[in-house]
């Protein structure tokens, strides 16, 4: 018996004028699987997330969550159905505290109310290492803290599928490792994760499978080290990926 994928993208196509961001793209993510996505700038990675979250309508093809087609389902309904995403550029409510930012996501994204909403927000802050910053306005956070808050806000909506878009970008090495620890723990708790990242070694430490996208198409889909050793992938990353990145 085959299990129903948590997420399935079937023959997605999308172009902005002459720029194609999805080219007959077919991809599945299993329940509780952690998938990494790499690919050069402009490959269509963030656009893919936007099509999964419902922020961008594909020109063709279908999106499925747990065996249900959601291609035309609006973003807020997809959030309630279990899709949580971060944005490449963090988008907190700057004037609200860290706690309030996560609380709002629980209200809006998971219909949580009262004490359950508070309890859930506190639990998310614990799991993302932000509990000690709960009462700080988001506008005063450092980059690492903002990236963590972006993860916490997505977690606030109680997702079963967490989409992470370059949450390690711009962080120092120790900060990247801290974030890897957070994501690994979320995955260990059973969450399905798709993580787009240019900091390739963070992915290698976290995901069991990796996809390389270029020009809106899947160039490689395999175990992380096999993808990074793939000749086509190395050519795409020529001069960008070092030996250290791949190790
Ligand atoms: N709303 C839009 N309108 C027009 N062009 C767009 C739009 N969104 C994305 N694009 C273009 O589509 C291409 C893919 O963009 P996308 O953000 O998906 O790339 P990416 O793989 O996430 O790149 P990066 O690694 O730089 O984040 C780019 O050329 C971008 O300029
Ligand atoms: Mg992007």
From TrEMBL:
It comes from the Bacteria. Gene3D superfamilies: P-loop containing nucleotide triphosphate hydrolases. Residues 7-240 form the ABC transporter domain. The keyword Transport applies. InterPro entries: AAA+_ATPase (IPR003593), ABC_AA/LPS_Transport (IPR051120), ABC_transporter-like_ATP-bd (IPR003439), P-loop_NTPase (IPR027417). Keywords: ATP-binding, Nucleotide-binding, Transport. Coiled coil: none annotated. One of its GO terms (molecular function) is ATP hydrolysis activity. Transmembrane segments: none annotated. Pfam families: ABC_tran. One of its GO terms (biological process) is D-alanine transmembrane transport. One of its GO terms (cellular component) is plasma membrane. This is Branched-chain amino acid transport system ATP-binding protein.
């Amino acid at each position: 018996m085959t299990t129903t994928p948590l997420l399935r993208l079937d023959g997605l196509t999308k172009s902005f004028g002459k720029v194609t961001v999805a080219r007959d793209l077919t991809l599945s993510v299993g329940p509780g699987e952690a998938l990494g996505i790499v690919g050069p700038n402009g490959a269509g990675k963030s656009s893919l997330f936007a099509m999964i979250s419902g922020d961008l309508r594909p020109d063709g093809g279908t999106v499925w969550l747990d065996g249900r087609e959601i291609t035309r389902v609006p973003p807020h309904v997809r959030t309630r159905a279990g899709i949580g995403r971060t944005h490449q550029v963090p988008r907190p409510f700057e004037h609200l505290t860290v706690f309030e930012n996560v609380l709002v996501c629980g209200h809006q994204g998971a219909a949580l109310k009262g004490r359950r909403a508070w309890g859930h927000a506190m639990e998310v802050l614990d799991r993302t290492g932000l509990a000690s910053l709960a009462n700080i306005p988001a506008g005063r956070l450092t980059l690492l803290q903002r990236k963590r808050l972006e993860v916490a806000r997505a977690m606030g909506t109680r997702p079963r599928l967490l989409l992470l878009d370059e949450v390690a970008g711009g962080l120092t090495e120790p900060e990247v490792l801290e974030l890897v620890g957070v994501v690994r723990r979320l995955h260990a708790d059973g969450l399905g994760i798709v993580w787009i990242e240019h900091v390739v070694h963070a992915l290698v430490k976290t995901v069991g499978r990796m996809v390389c996208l270029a020009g809106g198409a899947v160039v490689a889909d395999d175990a992380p080290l096999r993808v990074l050793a793939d000749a086509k992938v190395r050519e795409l990353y020529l001069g960008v990926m070092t030996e250290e990145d791949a190790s």
